[in-house]
TrEMBL record, chains A, B:
It comes from Paenibacillus profundus. This is Sulfite oxidase. Its cofactor is Mo-molybdopterin. It comes from the Bacteria. Keywords: Metal-binding, Molybdenum, Oxidoreductase. Residues 240-352 form the Moybdenum cofactor oxidoreductase dimerisation domain. Signal peptide: none annotated. Residues 43-215 form the Oxidoreductase molybdopterin-binding domain. InterPro entries: Ig_E-set (IPR014756), MoCF_OxRdtse_dimer (IPR005066), Mopterin_OxRdtase_euk (IPR008335), OxRdtase_Mopterin-bd_dom (IPR000572), OxRdtase_Mopterin-bd_sf (IPR036374). Gene3D superfamilies: 2.60.40.650, Oxidoreductase, molybdopterin-binding domain (3.90.420.10). PANTHER family: SULFITE OXIDASE, MITOCHONDRIAL, SULFITE REDUCTASE.
Length: 354, 354
């Protein structure tokens, strides 16, 4: 007989545009997320590609407006770095006071090794004028919004220091292959440490501004709005919050007594993860998990494991909190904000040992 | 360029054993759920098949113990009926007081046209003794449990009246093809109106008992236990509760003003769906949805639609409740029970019209 094939799948959140999350609990979380399990997050339908899609322009507050062709970029000095990409809406479904938007669970996060040219090198060729203040990246994807009239490209800006950081790349490869079409082929901006909205896919143009960029994906979306009724305290979504996910066991699962290998990932946009602690009694006491790092890859998630010998039947609340080198630690409750970004409360599951 | 293919997938809940739910919000809910979207619910690993798997035995309180071969069954008088199969744990994740077990959302339900021989005909060949009281169905799948020692086959019983109902089938085809392996090939019991646990896959044996069957999937699992601390009020899971699901729009989605086609399904195990009502204002007032029935298929879900013309921006709580010909109606809150079976509270989503 043909033995049935069992495999996990991306978890569909919307089809138009396509938004699917990674089945984060159901495959080996190594350095590289397999292409078929890499989360997909789109604002619009996929763009059509043509000859001219194989180039990116630089203009605005630069001495020389330039066009870099795909083949030009392939021959320039490059870098290859492992980067965790996390949608800022990851875990949005977990906010107790529910918010509108795609109800991502824990899988709007994936990791890959990206190869490309430092953006800084391209900006240096063009020559920034002293008036340069922000750099705007437009993708080839565009469309309409429900909250305002008109057609918009997907466009985001970075402050100069992040644009000039040597690890901000115009990437052309993911895991040793051309970037898959759904993930930005042929060219994608990769911004380590920032939430995924900054890593613009199908990169079309780079425009240096002498002012703040005010496109809707900069000032309407991807803004923390902590007030339910007022505009007070708004701030932009930028760096990834320190965070972790328990991969195994699953929430609400039934387990046998014996040895249970609890495992998961942890990541941050500020520095690096220093330690991961678990509580097996709902927060009364904490123990350290073993942390496994990818050498020389500061932007990669870390894997953590803990060997739990459990002989006592009963219900257990298991918590996990990560801490980073900036002293950030996952909070008991995430900061609520109207559009549900940056959820990073202490991870928590309940299991029953029978 | 090759246009990217966009498709929904089964939603993985566990891989060992395989449990995956239907992406119910993301394909056309017609009479037949495509095989790739049919929910998968297993208690154990898949059974190995051999020559002897192509037969089912009948014994116990019968005049003649018999073995029916697959090929015998194919040549006997048959019936073909559309049946909604719903796992009794469907929507378990919705219980506010959380319970252990697989956290099914709304997709542990699918529908197909099953062809097979009425079980009654087979029991008549064997000849029930007057002592016959229950009929036990064992599948070829077996394994261990977390809550008790030993190896168990998956086995379930039916009371005599349901076993003798002319629409309870020993099925060999789904949607005009041999039953897919994952769904019970070569032979599966199909019990219309009962939750899916009764429709035993990989049917191996039929045993007529003179007593109540007390296998663990009969008296430990698939029992409503309404008390948090006591055994009071326990009752077996049998008939499907009247229920509905809103397929579109999605919960917490952002919509434009204009005309929105709200749609979904409704189903019951007691009689048939008589009407489906929607509330567009959180339950203050109700309107009737249009109901579309599959002719002469009393065990099939109905499709319902409602054309909502919405010009006023704002947040809306949309509720849906179905009623059946036995007078059952979806309750405001589902009856809580320790293992989380039979959830059928009024369906409810929140949307924001911008």
């Amino acid at each position: 007989m043909r033995w049935p094939h069992i495999e996990p799948h991306l978890i569909t959140r919307s089809l138009v545009p396509e938004n699917q999350e990674s089945p984060i609990h159901f495959f080996s979380l190594a350095a590289v997320t397999p292409e078929g399990f890499f989360y997909i997050r789109n604002h619009f339908s996929y763009p059509m590609l043509s000859e001219e899609s194989f180039a990116v322009t630089i203009d605005g507050e630069v001495r020389n407006s330039l066009t870099f062709h795909y083949r030009d970029l392939l021959s320039m000095p490059s870098k290859e770095i492992a980067v965790t990409l996390e949608c800022s809406g990851n875990k949005r479904a977990r906010f107790k006071l529910k918010v509108y938007g795609i109800q991502w669970e824990e899988g709007a996060i994936s990791q890959g090794v990206w190869k490309g040219v430092p953006l800084r090198d391209l900006l240096n060729y063009a020559g920034l004028k002293p008036t340069a203040r922000e750099v705007v990246f437009a993708g080839r994807d565009c469309g309409t919004r429900t909250d305002m009239a008109g057609t918009y490209p997907y466009a985001r800006s970075l402050p100069l220091d992040k644009a000039l950081h040597p690890d901000t790349l115009v990437a052309y490869e993911l895991n040793g292959q051309p970037i898959p079409y759904k993930h930005g082929y042929p060219l994608r901006l990769i911004v380590p440490q920032w939430y995924g909205m900054a890593s613009v896919k199908w990169l079309r143009s780079i425009t240096v501004l002498d002012a703040r960029f005010t496109g809707p994906f900069q000032v309407v979306d991807y803004v923390y709005e902590p007030g339910t009724d007022s505009d007070d305290g708004k701030s932009p979504v930028t760096l990834v919050h320190v965070n972790s996910t328990i991969q195994f066991p699953m929430d609400r699962s039934l387990l046998d007594t014996g040895t249970i290998q609890i495992c998961g990932i942890a990541w941050t946009g500020t520095g690096f993860i220093t330690d991961v602690e678990l509580s097996l009694n709902g927060g009364e006491s904490w123990v350290s998990a073993d942390v496994h790092r990818l050498p020389n890859q500061p932007y990669a998630w870390i894997l953590w494991t803990y060997r739990w010998d459990v002989s006592q039947q009963g219900e257990y609340a298991i918590l996990c909190r990560a801490r980073d080198s900036y002293g950030n630690i996952q909070p008991a409750a995430a900061s609520w904000n109207k559009k549900g970004y940056g959820y990073n409360a202490i991870s928590s599951i309940n299991v029953k040992v029978e």
